[in-house]
């Protein structure tokens, strides 16, 4: 309080440190300090940081409550496709090297047909190697076209191609559709093989043995994640590894479809006697499968016409010219 006059008015000075009592009288100076005290107190209470902090706290509480309510209503879906979409929008799941998810993990069927007999063509001559590549390209294109639109080609790996189809989600395929697509790609392979053999006019070692080519296919099923690596879309997951491992199996027949028990409902309609087998895969273990061997008579080859024969001949001539040009360069 003021110690210099009878009014005993308390005088306080506000600062960024602790308040201090002023021993000043009211004779003009004391009341002036009192007015200054009230002005500083009003400025302190209206500091701009306090409303911002309060508003931020209110927003955080409101958003948290909304997410809790939304999660209870939607259940596990918040951790699935919804979470993936939010993560992609916020770009928080982009990894090193430009990788990013192309979709959530889905139950997916994997089909991998492999052309057998291709490797021995490569060491014959440079013409034979070029013709072998032409033949394999034609056969791969026929299989991809035959499996479409149910199965989508993910990657071509030499004389094999990895195809896939989701079994859940907005673009899901039914087991019946997948089985028909597997049947169609096998028939498309042998139809194109028969057409190439009938229209062949080349007598090189490769073209004379077109009829020796066959196909084996692996069908598997499991959770697969698609991700983007630059401009490419790749598939990731243990089912992808198992599918590749199963291409090396104990089969002794040249033509078959190997279906894992996980994909048993997706077996194609071709094949004679079913053969139960357990395949041992490196770093994976034992995989129970059913093998469906088949004969060429079960497929429906088409007869090549004159236009197809001319087109194939011109294509092989163009391949020869490219091989000569490459060797000359």
Automatic annotation (TrEMBL):
The lineage of its organism: Bacteria, Pseudomonadati, Pseudomonadota, Alphaproteobacteria, Rhodospirillales. InterPro entries: Nucleotide_cyclase, Uncharacterised_Rv2561. The keyword Membrane applies. The keyword Magnesium does not apply. The chain crosses the membrane at residues 48-70. Keywords: Membrane, Transmembrane, Transmembrane helix. It comes from the Bacteria. This is DUF2652 domain-containing protein.
């Amino acid at each position: 309080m003021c110690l210099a006059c009878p009014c005993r008015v308390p005088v306080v000075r506000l600062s960024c440190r602790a308040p201090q009592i002023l021993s000043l009288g009211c004779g003009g100076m004391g009341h002036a300090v009192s007015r200054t005290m009230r002005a500083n107190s009003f400025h302190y209470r209206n500091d701009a940081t306090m409303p911002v902090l309060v508003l931020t706290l209110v927003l955080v509480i409101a958003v948290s409550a909304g997410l809790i309510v939304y999660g209870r209503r939607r259940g596990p879906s918040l951790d699935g496709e919804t979470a993936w979409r939010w993560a992609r929008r916020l770009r928080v799941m982009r990894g090193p090297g430009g990788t990013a998810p192309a979709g959530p993990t889905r139950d997916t069927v994997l089909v991998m047909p492999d052309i057998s007999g291709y490797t021995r063509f490569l060491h014959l001559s440079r013409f034979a190697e070029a013709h072998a590549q032409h033949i394999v390209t034609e056969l791969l294109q026929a299989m991809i076209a035959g499996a479409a639109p149910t199965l989508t080609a993910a990657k071509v790996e030499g004389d094999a191609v990895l195809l896939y189809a989701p079994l859940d989600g907005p673009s899901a395929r039914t087991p019946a559709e997948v089985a028909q697509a597997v049947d169609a790609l096998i028939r498309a392979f042998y139809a194109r093989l028969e057409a190439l053999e009938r229209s062949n006019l080349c007598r090189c070692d490769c073209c004379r043995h077109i009829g020796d080519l066959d196909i084996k296919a692996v069908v598997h099923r499991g959770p697969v994640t698609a991700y983007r690596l630059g401009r490419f879309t790749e598939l990731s997951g243990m089912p992808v590894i198992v599918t590749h491992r199963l291409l090396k199996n104990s089969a002794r027949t040249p033509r078959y479809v190997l279906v894992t028990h996980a994909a048993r409902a997706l077996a194609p309609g071709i094949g004679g006697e079913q053969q139960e087998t357990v395949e041992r895969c490196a770093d994976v273990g034992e995989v129970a499968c059913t093998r469906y061997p088949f004969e060429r008579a079960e497929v429906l080859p088409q007869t090549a016409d004159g236009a197809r024969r001319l087109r194939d001949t011109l294509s092989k001539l163009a391949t020869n010219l490219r091989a000569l040009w490459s060797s000359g360069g």
